From TrEMBL:
One of its GO terms (cellular component) is membrane. InterPro entries: EmrE-like (IPR037185), WAT1-related (IPR030184). It is a multi-pass membrane protein. Keywords: Membrane, Transmembrane, Transmembrane helix. This is WAT1-related protein. The chain crosses the membrane at residues 50-68, 80-98, 123-143, 163-183, 203-224, 231-252. One of its GO terms (molecular function) is transmembrane transporter activity. It comes from Sesamum latifolium. It is found in: Membrane. The keyword Transmembrane applies. The keyword Transmembrane helix applies. Its main location: membrane.
């Protein structure tokens, strides 16, 4: 799971570099999520990882609602989970709304990429998109575990119960995501010139998203769901914040602020 978080942050950093060079985020939707990529395009990888704090909280609350997690308010374990979920939500809001002082000046002429977004309104809009991305991801993360519900309303719950084969499930997950993404992406970006990806960081971003993001990452997440459950998988999300901040300063020349 640690390797997955590292690869996911690497994907965000590479993608931000590709967007700064003109890559359209509709092109990368073949290998990822539109809300997440659009959010990073409007902000930076550090905010993307900081907003991932919403994943453990939303996953926990969804698990409680769906009776996948037992909540006993008199139990120290349950109290710790509730407090942790509330703190993670508060942390995500602070990163988006609080404009703090500069901590590290990462500006470097060799590393700094031309930014497409500078307005604070776009920063908040990017945070809102990322929040939506992680909330949707938490819902999807819980879907395979809904097999214990009285109403068998999700195909995912039945499939993973009757056929717990992670590799094959990941293959069909990506295949049908590709099939659904094609018409939507072409409708959103009809200009064929936008689909010509040059052989530079933009091509690396697309390939990396497909192999490490939709391939390796989804497979390990599916395996973690099958073995430990949704809350365990979401626990590793906060580690990506420190990784993203370090990689953003080193590879993108981002300034590190206290808050945003």
């Amino acid at each position: 799971m640690l390797t997955v978080e590292l690869s996911n942050v690497g994907l965000n950093v590479i993608y931000k570099a590709a967007v700064s060079k003109g890559l359209n985020y509709h092109v990368t939707w073949f290998a990822g999520q539109l809300l997440g990529y659009a959010g990073i395009a409007y902000s930076n990888p550090t905010l993307g990882s900081a907003m991932s704090n919403l994943a453990p909280a939303s996953t926990f609350f969804l698990a409680v609602v769906c009776r996948l997690e037992k909540l006993k308010l008199r139990s120290l374990s349950s109290q710790a989970k509730v407090i942790g979920a509330l703190v993670s939500i508060a942390g995500a809001l602070v990163v988006v709304l609080y404009d703090g002082p500069l901590v590290i000046n990462g500006h470097d002429q060799k590393l700094t990429l031309p930014t497409t977004v500078g307005a604070r309104s776009n920063w908040i809009f990017g945070g809102a998109l990322l929040a939506g991305c992680y909330i949707v991801a938490s819902i999807c993360r819980n879907l395979p575990k809904f097999k214990d519900l009285k109403f068998k309303i999700t195909v995912a719950g039945i499939v993973i119960k009757e056929y717990p084969a992670e590799f094959i499930l990941v293959f069909f997950y990506n295949f049908f995501a590709f099939v659904l993404a094609v018409p939507v992406c072409f409708a959103s970006e009809p200009h064929l010139s936008s689909w010509a990806v040059p052989a530079d960081v933009r091509l690396i971003s697309v390939l990396y998203a497909g192999v490490m993001g939709s391939g390796f990452g989804v497979m390990i997440h599916t395996w973690g769901l099958h073995v430990k459950g949704p809350v365990y998988v979401a626990m590793f999300r906060p580690l990506s914040i420190a990784i993203a901040a370090i990689m953003g300063v080193i590879f993108l020349g981002d300034d590190l602020y206290l808050g945003r």
